[in-house]
Design brief:
globular, 319 residues, binds iron/sulfur cluster, alpha/beta, 11 helices, 4-stranded antiparallel sheet, 8-stranded mixed sheet, Rossmann fold
Length: 319
């Protein structure tokens, strides 16, 4: 499987507490091939963002990687020294986050912030010309003028374009986009997603798209991993996950996606909330919210079942 750019195998990330460690991510495995878009989907608190941060060992204390392996471009990330990690962050794996306004430094002009990344990782480059070229590439209008703007002078969509330009500055091999459109209005969301797809085609980089919105992954991701309570509960090619989802949680996420067609249909939410990882229910962690739960679900945690070669599910009653 070293043909993959990223291989995550049985990754566990725990948080130390005075008593038992909290299992935020518990035995997660997935891979991303070069140039591929893979989605991690689930509600807030299911472990997606902690998984994403663990890829470059950015989980802050009291969090720690409790087990598993992460290999990026054939290298063992968990064995890297601080210099190797610094080189990988930004230059090989770059991030964009949900709230561009909080990720950008409010006291520096946006051009200066992009230039910093360039100076750090691409010494000798004509910085101003490259900043303008990056802002052009992400579709920011009038880049020569806008590079002198402070973040508060730009709209949310423009700020996210600046964040994407900053992420692209070092030509990463993989972009981790953590809820990149959540803070934006619907029209701008579509523009940012189109931009990511276009940039991926142009630059050939891989994307790990993290979102709570299963509707967002259609037309963007090739494979989808659905996470719940720190584990992947269903994974497979996007068409199978969207068209033949097998896990009741995946179906719940699908039902919660707003639709434009089909007349007046009510959007159905999933009852209850994601469980506290410090107090996971017995058996299948989804059982208190699951419309198909039976006695077995309260007692036994389901193992992963192979539906087709690529499509897997963790549910006793997926059929
Ligand atoms: Fe629902 Fe049971 Fe399947 Fe869990 S194992 S998802 S509770 S049917």
């Amino acid at each position: 499987m070293e043909d993959n750019l990223l291989n995550v195998d049985q990754l566990s990330v725990f948080f130390r507490t005075r008593t038992e460690p909290v299992r935020a991510v518990n035995g997660v495995s997935f891979s991303v091939a070069p140039g591929e878009t893979v989605a991690l989907v689930g509600e807030s608190g299911c472990g997606k963002s902690v998984t994403a941060l663990a890829l470059t060992r950015l989980v802050a204390k009291p969090g720690y990687v409790a087990g598993g392996n992460i290999r990026f471009a054939g290298r063992d990330v968990l064995a890297m020294d601080p210099a190797q990690l610094r080189q990988m962050r930004g230059a090989e794996i770059a991030y964009i986050f949900q709230e561009p306004a909080t990720s950008l430094n409010p006291v520096f002009r946006v051009g200066w912030q992009i230039a910093e990344a360039l100076k750090l990782h691409r010494a000798g480059i004509a910085v101003r010309a490259e900043v303008i070229s990056l802002l052009n590439r992400v579709g920011l209008p009038d880049p020569e003028r806008r590079l002198n703007a402070y973040p508060h002078e730009l709209s949310g969509g423009m700020q996210q374009r600046v964040m994407i330009a900053m992420a692209l500055a070092c030509r990463p091999r993989m972009l981790v986009a953590d809820e990149p459109t959540t803070a934006l209005d619907v029209t701008i969301q579509a523009q940012i997603l189109d931009l990511l797809v276009r940039l991926q085609e142009e630059l050939g980089m891989a994307i790990l798209l993290i979102t709570h919105n299963l509707g967002l992954v259609a037309g963007v991701a090739r494979r989808v991993n659905v996470m719940y309570a720190g584990r992947i509960v269903e994974r497979g090619p996007v068409e199978q996950i969207l068209g033949q989802s097998a896990h009741p949680y995946t179906r719940g996420l699908m039902a919660a996606v707003p639709r434009l067609s089909g007349g007046k249909t009510r959007m159905i939410g999933i009852p209850g909330a994601v469980p506290n990882p410090a107090r996971l229910p017995t058996g299948c962690p989804f059982h208190p919210r699951c419309p198909k739960a039976q006695a077995l679900c309260r007692q036994e945690d389901p193992i992963e079942t192979i539906i087709t070669e690529d499509h897997r599910v963790r549910c006793h009653f997926w059929k």
